[in-house]
Inverse folding.
């Protein structure tokens, strides 16, 4: 019997709030705000997504239209916002969404494709943003990353997302000079990394819990642990293509240290298919990696299987869903 998380979050519009598993579990988005309805696919102006995203008050943002929003610049989102694509099909292109110095953000059921320009990510989270949940989004073909989490941004969950047609998929932790990124904590679960080349994710300094993800046919490696990173990989499915090394370690020197160090990976009940090589470090390694139970009490995890693999292929990314009814702002 396959048990998946979030079985009831579509019963009511605001049932998503506070329901993420993992490090992003406190994200409530715009739970206590008014409903903002996007009526225009324009980059800016009345009824646009950009207009709702920049407002300072809490908002639960929904869409009355389907189609493509071509962004001419990053779309910045302020704190206490939910961008809820359920009930419509919205594609973000041109540039991406930027979460800068904000908190309590939920982004659900959107497509991101075709972002162009230097340093253009699908979803860019920096600096000092926290309590974020990204759920059921499809991301592909951006000039930089699909999701980047850097500069002291933390307490983030990425779930049920689809990643395809891309090189540097997900970077967590900016570079060895940003030692304050030691605070980063991210959970990634029930995601599908479909033939993307590398960075599923690449992590520096922080802690990442990966569980029940399906990663296949990578081009260089599946997961990379760089300077001081701790990766807890649990019950994931790694299916190799031409490249067989699953875990990679890139030694780097933190700006406030003398020694050069890579990160560490702890693998628990992962499934390695088609000749995928775990490439785990011997000696001091997995036992030095954090355990998720030190940070949150429960999460929905099951042994990796062909059934789980098939479900992840179907249930990740943008979904054709009815828009849930809204019972209003909770008292």
């Amino acid at each position: 019997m396959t048990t998946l998380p979030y079985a009831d979050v579509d019963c009511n519009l605001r049932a998503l709030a506070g329901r993420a598993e993992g490090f992003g579990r406190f994200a409530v988005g715009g739970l206590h705000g008014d409903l903002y309805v996007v009526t225009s696919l324009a980059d800016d102006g009345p009824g646009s997504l950009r207009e709702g995203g920049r407002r300072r008050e809490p908002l639960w943002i929904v869409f009355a239209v389907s189609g493509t929003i071509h962004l001419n610049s990053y779309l910045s989102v302020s704190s206490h916002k939910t961008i809820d694509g359920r009930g419509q099909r919205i594609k973000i292109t041109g540039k991406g969404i930027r979460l800068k110095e904000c908190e309590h953000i939920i982004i659900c059921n959107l497509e991101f494709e075709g972002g162009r320009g230097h340093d253009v990510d699908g979803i860019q989270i920096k600096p000092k943003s926290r309590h974020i949940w990204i759920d059921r989004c499809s991301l592909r073909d951006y000039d930089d990353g699909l999701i980047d989490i850097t500069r002291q941004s933390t307490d983030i969950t990425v779930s049920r997302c689809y990643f395809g047609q891309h090189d540097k998929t997900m970077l967590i932790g900016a570079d060895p000079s940003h030692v304050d990124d030691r605070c980063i904590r991210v959970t990634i679960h029930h995601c599908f990394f479909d033939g993307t080349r590398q960075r599923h994710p690449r992590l520096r300094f922080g802690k990442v819990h990966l569980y029940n993800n399906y990663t296949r046919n990578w081009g260089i490696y599946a997961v990379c642990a760089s300077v001081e990173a701790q990766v807890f990989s649990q019950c994931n499915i790694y299916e190799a293509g031409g490249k067989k090394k699953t875990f990679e370690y890139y030694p780097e020197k933190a700006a406030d240290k003398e020694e050069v160090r890579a990160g560490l990976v702890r693998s628990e009940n992962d499934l390695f298919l088609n000749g995928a090589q775990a490439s785990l470090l011997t000696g001091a390694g997995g036992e030095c990696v954090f355990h998720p139970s030190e940070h949150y009490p429960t999460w929905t995890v099951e042994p990796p299987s062909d059934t789980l693999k098939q479900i992840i292929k179907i249930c990740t990314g943008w979904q054709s869903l009815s828009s849930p009814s809204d019972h209003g702002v909770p008292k």
Residues 145 and 158 are 15 Å apart (CA to CA). The chain has a mean pLDDT of 96. The helical segments are 49-54, 306-315. The longest strand covers residues 103-108.
